Fold this sequence. Notes:
By secondary structure, this protein is an all-alpha fold.
Amino acid sequence: MKQYIESNALKARISVALAENRAVVRTDANRAALNAEEAALIWVVAQINRAAMDAVRKVAANKAVRLVMAEYGMKQYDVAKVLGVSEAQISRMLREELPEDEQAEIIEAIKNGGAA
Length: 116
């Protein structure tokens, strides 16, 4: 029970740190002053922020293609089948922003359902 309470207290501190969006500069001088719990909290907040930014980047890239996929009710594996490539290839393609002409080709293939 004590471990559960401590876990909730740590979660509450993480929430407060995220809400304040505070940044702790890690220098040799203040690194020694941090206790293990504070260091763990800083690490967790940094990992959460990194994951959130990665998610934003992935959603923002190739937004036009993703909107057409949603409009036509297609998943990445459906688009892969239409284009004749692997699901992994589609995933990699959509991670980074594609040139306009490549996006247009993919959108046209989605709209034609593979007839392109």
